[in-house]
Design goal:
- The strands form 3 sheets. An 8-stranded antiparallel beta sheet has the order 1-2-12-9-14-7-4-3, covered by helices on one side. A 4-stranded antiparallel beta sheet has the order 8-13-10-11, with no helix packed on it. A two-stranded antiparallel ribbon has the order 5-6.
- It is globular.
- 16% of the residues lie in helices and 34% in strands.
- The chain has a single domain, classed as Alpha-ketoglutarate-dependent dioxygenase AlkB-like (Jelly Rolls).
- The chain is built from 3 helices and 14 strands.
- It binds N-(carboxycarbonyl)-S-(naphthalen-2-ylmethyl)-L-cysteine (MD3) and fe (iii) ion.
- Residues 131, 133, 141, 146, 156, 158, 191, 195-196, 198, 200, 202, 219, 221 line the site of N-(carboxycarbonyl)-S-(naphthalen-2-ylmethyl)-L-cysteine.
- N-(carboxycarbonyl)-S-(naphthalen-2-ylmethyl)-L-cysteine (MD3) binds next to strand 7, strand 9, strand 13 and strand 14.
- It comes from Pseudomonas fluorescens.
- Its cofactor is Fe(2+).
- It is an enzyme of class 1 (oxidoreductase).
- InterPro entries: Alkb, AlkB-like, AlkB-like_sf, Oxoglu/Fe-dep_dioxygenase_dom.
Length: 226
């Protein structure tokens, strides 16, 4: 038997994951966990569903209340979508660009978010919003807190796809020192409880080409917003 016929399951996993390790988890805060490679087995269902959402609600660059254009392209699906314009940050039931309801959250999105939350110890996660962020090389997200949700008791689940990025995980004050956590294609991070209001951000995306997604990073952020 040829050596490349051994352990076909492991080889298949690595073919899609490239240099990714098999699923492992890493605690980055008291109630924050990185699930390495957790989304990889879901990709073949996830990407077509993403394409369908983006047909109805394409990525667009939004304006902050301060008048700056965000470098990250945004879309949403689910009952509520996060938006920003000159008047402020908020969740809306409709896409301001089409005045139509945001696209439904695909079943596979919800199933993946719930499976990841459960794996991190949060049962009964019921997200009503999935913000979809697109980073091209140079795009970043400055340190901020997520404070537009109605209640902070639900966790947040974040799925990283495409090019790697450095995630900044800070404290409860903007000036607290941040830890840098690299996030790779297929990684999922789950935050809850005492870590829910920590400052966080993404360093400018480095140039590169991802075999499946090209020169971009896509992040899904599942939240219970309403
Ligand atoms: C950490 N997105 O959309 S993951 C955001 O990768 C956002 O696109 C980043 O920050 C991204 O608001 C980071 C999501 C995330 C969301 C909420 C958090 C990280 C968090 C709450 C507390 C700590
Ligand atoms: Fe955030």
């Amino acid at each position: 038997m040829r050596s490349d016929q051994l352990k076909p399951t492991t080889l298949d996993l690595f073919a899609d994951a490239e240099v990714q390790q098999p699923a492992t988890s890493q605690q980055i805060g008291e109630q924050s966990l990185v699930l390495r490679g957790f989304a990889l087995p879901w990709l073949e269902r996830l990407l077509p569903a993403l394409d369908e959402v983006l047909l109805a609600a394409p990525f667009r660059q939004m304006i902050t209340p301060g008048g700056f254009t965000m470098s990250v392209g945004l879309s949403s699906c689910g009952t509520l979508g996060w938006t920003t314009d000159r008047t402020g940050y908020r969740y809306t039931h409709t896409d301001p660009q089409t005045a139509q309801p945001w696209p439904d959250m695909p079943t596979v999105f919800l199933e993946l978010a719930q499976a990841a939350a459960l794996a991190a110890g949060f049962g009964d996660f019921m997200p009503d919003s999935c913000l979809i962020n697109r980073y091209v090389p140079g795009a970043k997200m400055s340190l901020h807190q997520d404070k537009n949700e109605r209640d902070y008791s639900a966790p947040i689940v974040s799925v990283s796809l495409g090019l790697p990025a450095i995630f900044l995980f800070g404290g409860h004050a903007r000036s607290d020192k941040s830890q840098r956590v690299p996030l790779f294609h297929g990684d999922i991070v789950v935050w809850g409880g005492v870590d829910r209001l920590r400052y966080h951000g993404i360093l400018p995306l480095k140039d590169g080409q991802h075999s499946r997604l090209g020169a971009q990073r896509i992040n899904f952020t599942f939240r219970t917003a309403g």
